[in-house]
Design a protein that fits this description.
Elements (H helix, E strand, L loop, with lengths): L1 H48 L4 H8 L3 H11 L11
Helix pairs in contact: 1-2, 1-3, 2-3
């Protein structure tokens, strides 16, 4: 009977560890998504200012130029050329 209790306790401990691991993974995923959304929001504001090139915005916001271009396209804004900003 003691052996059954030990096995049950181990199974419960494994289940709890699994649940905790899943919760930690979900939290990290949530934080990463929030950071990405924040970077995209910064880029959107920079696009609206029309002062920087896509390359400069990508560098400032920590995004790829392709992501900045997609945000610019979604906003209906034309890209700033390098010579326009000088």
């Amino acid at each position: 009977m003691d052996r059954i209790r030990e096995l049950s306790a181990d199974e419960e401990a494994r289940r709890l560890a699994f649940v905790r691991e899943r919760a930690l993974h979900d939290e990290v995923s949530f934080l990463n998504e929030a950071k990405r959304e924040g970077r995209e929001e910064v880029a959107s504001h920079l696009i609206a200012l029309r002062l920087l090139t896509d390359e400069q915005i990508a560098t400032a916001a920590g995004l790829t130029e392709a992501t900045v271009k997609a945000l610019r396209d979604a906003a209906g804004s034309s890209p700033l050329s390098r010579s326009s900003g000088s």
